[in-house]
Amino acid sequence: MAMTALAPTTTATAAAEPPRRRPGLIAFALLAPGLAYLALFFLVPFVSLLITSFGINDPVEYGAFSYGFYWQNYVDVLAEYWPQFVRSFWYALLATIFALLISYPIAYFIGVRLRERTLLRNLLLVLVIAPFFISFLLRTLAWKQILSDEGPVVGFLQAVGLMGPQDHITGTAAAVVFGLTYNFIPFMTLPLFASLDRLDKRLLEAGSDLYAGPATTFVKITFPLSLPGVISGTLLTFIPAAGDYVNASQSFLGGPSTAMVGNVIQSKFLITVNYPQAAALSILLMAVILVIVGTYVRRAGTEDLL
Amino acid sequence: MSVNTTTLRAANGPVRRRSVGSWLLPLYVTAAFIVLLIPIVYTLVFSFNDANRSNISWNGFTLDNWQNVCAQPDVCIAFGNSLLVGAVSTLLATTLGTAIAIALVRYRFRARTVISLLLFLPMATPEIVMGAGLASQFLTMGVSKGLGTIIVAHTMFCLSFVVVTVRARVLSLDPALEEAGRDLYGSPTAVFWRVTFPLLLPGIIAAALLSFSLSFDDFIITYFNAGTVQTFPVYIYVAAQRGIPPQANVIASAVFLLAIAATLVFQVGAARRAQRRR
């Protein structure tokens, strides 16, 4: 089961491991190649991104820049692109909340209600991960066609008078948030399922034996016990959603007024080739995400995620 | 555990009232699944559309697209690139990651926190930042982008997921089995290949499948490091501006149907085995 493996991302901590031996030559040989790879192709790129972000863009020659300590790049990109910045985090937050609200009942149904019906449960899990097997670009384009001005949804809403003849769905903020929510629902559902699947049903029965209503049982027992799943699901949704540029791109669900910071970085890096500004924006995005995620994880109370 | 719940229920009898959730929840889940599956059905249906270059409106049913997948050669080339990149980077990431996973469980390190952080960070970094970072490193080093740089990038972001997946399996391994192997005078290599590796294999396979699907579907990092080479998602992104040919839907649908069929066979088999055990 390929994708259910996503679930233990954060929950593997549950089993405390007793490290047994002192490291020797074998341990080093096992660890070194992989860690060296990550250092070389994950850490070093950060350093080159940081160096590039302080470079001075050549105003004449296309795509050229010289190294320096030009921190003005950061001031410039913040002054010019703060709306896209704020929009990214706002859209990502909305998408995370919607994905959580939509996914929780699904995960609860599969993980708790269907626990004794293995086959049906596994079939529904396959349906949850089914979207992974079709390129997310094609699925997003499918939504674009369905929600387009000629599509059935707009036609229906205009016929019943909920939309005016000049109104659109594609190209609006709502469409982008919809696309982000849709694309990340499996990333939310799987960790939630992994948590709820381990929930001891006897605790729920104990709750109702003590005359707690379904709502109280949920607030006092189910939700707190599923918190690890909620945390990993929201992180797996929020982080990639904040950096996404496909949904908000104009050839997908977005429009001129929905550009997110990812769209700016992409066009700076690959189209206008202003590398220093693209790098400064990437560093800023990463810094904000680290601050948000750090605060969130600390407040939620699970510090070790791996 | 299931025994306990049933006895509890039997003792309590049928007095417990059925909550609203007992019918509302299945109804909601059914509706949610229908909406979630709409774009998949749409992609499948439009693979049979009698359209030429832009596959937007329905022009009638045809099997042509399925019979002549490579009528749009770019689609097939991109698909081939995706398979190649997926296979090579899965092999690399699975090898490197499995080694790390074994070492992490078996040995005590002083730098443990640093190592965990290094493994966790790639999963917490937005793809666009990793993509831009690698691209600017290749730029600084003067490396020209192509299949090689895509493979380097994919191996990098698959690695952590492999470690997490395989580690869970190593943790569940009974050390007594390896001790038994050593007691029977198995050399360390023999113990590894005849005891440890076969026991870890399900975890390694799961990690490889995960890694391949992550690589196959990746667009954001790939686009920054692909140069003029197109993988399947890059092809779709570029073609989206002028219209996707139906052949792209055929390839996506075929991959989808194959993957779903394989998963279903596996799941039904697993459910049968579980039932027999009960």
UniProtKB/TrEMBL annotation, chain A:
<keyword id="KW-0812">Transmembrane</keyword>
<feature type="transmembrane region" description="Helical">
    <location>
        <begin position="278"/>
        <end position="297"/>
    </location>
</feature>
<feature type="transmembrane region" description="Helical">
    <location>
        <begin position="173"/>
        <end position="194"/>
    </location>
</feature>
<keyword id="KW-0813">Transport</keyword>
<feature type="domain" description="ABC transmembrane type-1">
    <location>
        <begin position="85"/>
        <end position="296"/>
    </location>
</feature>
<keyword id="KW-1133">Transmembrane helix</keyword>
<feature type="transmembrane region" description="Helical">
    <location>
        <begin position="26"/>
        <end position="52"/>
    </location>
</feature>
<dbReference type="InterPro" id="IPR000515">
    <property type="entry name" value="MetI-like"/>
</dbReference>
<feature type="transmembrane region" description="Helical">
    <location>
        <begin position="89"/>
        <end position="111"/>
    </location>
</feature>
<keyword id="KW-1003">Cell membrane</keyword>
<keyword id="KW-0472">Membrane</keyword>
<comment type="similarity">
    <text>Belongs to the binding-protein-dependent transport system permease family. CysTW subfamily.</text>
</comment>
<dbReference type="InterPro" id="IPR035906">
    <property type="entry name" value="MetI-like_sf"/>
</dbReference>
<dbReference type="Pfam" id="PF00528">
    <property type="entry name" value="BPD_transp_1"/>
</dbReference>
<feature type="transmembrane region" description="Helical">
    <location>
        <begin position="123"/>
        <end position="142"/>
    </location>
</feature>
<protein>
    <submittedName>
        <fullName>ABC transporter permease</fullName>
    </submittedName>
</protein>
From TrEMBL, chain B:
<feature type="transmembrane region" description="Helical">
    <location>
        <begin position="250"/>
        <end position="270"/>
    </location>
</feature>
<protein>
    <submittedName>
        <fullName>ABC transporter permease</fullName>
    </submittedName>
</protein>
<feature type="transmembrane region" description="Helical">
    <location>
        <begin position="83"/>
        <end position="105"/>
    </location>
</feature>
<comment type="similarity">
    <text>Belongs to the binding-protein-dependent transport system permease family. CysTW subfamily.</text>
</comment>
<feature type="transmembrane region" description="Helical">
    <location>
        <begin position="191"/>
        <end position="214"/>
    </location>
</feature>
<dbReference type="Pfam" id="PF00528">
    <property type="entry name" value="BPD_transp_1"/>
</dbReference>
<feature type="transmembrane region" description="Helical">
    <location>
        <begin position="117"/>
        <end position="139"/>
    </location>
</feature>
<keyword id="KW-1003">Cell membrane</keyword>
<feature type="domain" description="ABC transmembrane type-1">
    <location>
        <begin position="79"/>
        <end position="268"/>
    </location>
</feature>
<dbReference type="InterPro" id="IPR051789">
    <property type="entry name" value="Bact_Polyamine_Transport"/>
</dbReference>
<keyword id="KW-0812">Transmembrane</keyword>
<feature type="transmembrane region" description="Helical">
    <location>
        <begin position="23"/>
        <end position="45"/>
    </location>
</feature>
<feature type="transmembrane region" description="Helical">
    <location>
        <begin position="151"/>
        <end position="170"/>
    </location>
</feature>
<keyword id="KW-1133">Transmembrane helix</keyword>
<dbReference type="InterPro" id="IPR000515">
    <property type="entry name" value="MetI-like"/>
</dbReference>
<dbReference type="InterPro" id="IPR035906">
    <property type="entry name" value="MetI-like_sf"/>
</dbReference>
<keyword id="KW-0813">Transport</keyword>
<keyword id="KW-0472">Membrane</keyword>
